[in-house]
Write a structure and sequence with these properties.
This protein has 266 residues and is an all-alpha fold. The chain has a single domain, classed as MetI-like (MetI-like fold), CATH 1.10.3720. The protein has twelve helices and no strands. Helix 1 crosses helix 12 and helix 6 packs antiparallel against helix 9. The longest helix is centred in the N-terminal third of the chain and has 34 residues. It starts with a helix and ends with a helix.
Length: 266
């Protein structure tokens, strides 16, 4: 009895961990399971096993049009967020100026802002610059969401960066521009790539902001509209393919974050 009571806290902790893990994994696992159904609607357990809905999803013209548009928007927003994140990261990590902390807080604010607040704000602000809902507006909105991720990764990379390498390059005759592109950027490219990948994925599967800024043509919105009218197993099949891509991206990002966490400034 005493042995059981001694082990009780550990058992409760393990049980809690299993519940949390199940809560996280089940929403991902169930769509994967029903994607292989041979039936005509989403049911669990699936009626038989088939790949028919994967083929149907890839042959769906609306889905493929949405996929192309989502890729264009995600690529454009990632480029904008990455360029802005690199510039902001260099300024914040390398220079001391008044209001530095405020600038960093403002740039990271989209992480904490509700998407509906950001979407409504952009609906009011973008027309001042002649922009309304559409590809460019959605691209800029997604870039605003991706910027904090790029900035965070770049700042993490610069926290382990040795500025003596830049000074050595300058002392050897390289100019500031050449030093930046051939010394600085290669040394922090891991953070840049991880941040850019996170920004791309965030843009690609975004729904909350796209509702305000796009014309309902992106892939996630088309999938949502399809599910509102019909429990289409093709949506589950497409979700499974996107999940595989996202997990592949995590395999790139997570090792980098672990590497950065294990480093200490020299």
């Amino acid at each position: 009895m005493n042995d059981f009571l001694a082990r009780l806290p550990r058992l409760l902790l393990n049980g809690y961990g299993l519940l949390v893990t199940a809560f996280i994994l089940l929403p991902m696992a169930l769509p994967v399971a029903v994607a292989f159904t041979s039936g005509d609607s989403l049911t669990f357990p699936p009626h038989g096993l088939s790949l028919r809905w994967f083929a149907a999803a890839l042959d769906n013209a609306q889905f493929m049009t949405g996929l192309r548009l989502s890729l264009v928007i995600a690529f454009g927003s990632t480029v904008i967020a990455t360029v802005a994140g690199i510039g902001a990261g260099v300024a914040i990590s390398r220079y001391r100026f008044r209001g530095r902390g405020v600038v960093q807080a403002v740039l990271l604010a989209p992480l904490a802002l509700p998407a509906i607040v950001l979407g409504l704000g952009l609906l009011f602000v973008l027309p001042w610059f002649g922009l309304r809902s559409g590809v460019v507006a959605t691209m800029l909105g997604h870039a605003l969401l991706g910027l904090p991720y790029v900035l965070s990764m770049v700042l993490a990379a610069f926290s382990n960066y040795d500025p003596a390498l830049e000074r050595a390059s300058l002392n050897l005759g390289a100019g500031p521009v050449r030093t930046f592109f051939y010394v600085t950027l290669p040394l922090v490219r891991g953070g840049i790539l991880a941040g850019a990948l996170a920004a791309f994925l965030l843009s690609f599967d975004n729904i909350s902001l796209s509702i305000f800024l796009s014309n309902n043509d992106t892939l996630p919105l088309r999938m949502m509209q399809q599910m509102q009218s019909y429990a289409d197993p093709g949506v589950a099949a497409l979700s499974t393919l996107l999940l595989i891509v996202s997990l592949g991206a995590l395999l790139v990002i997570v090792p980098y974050l672990r590497q950065q966490a294990g480093k200490r400034p020299g």
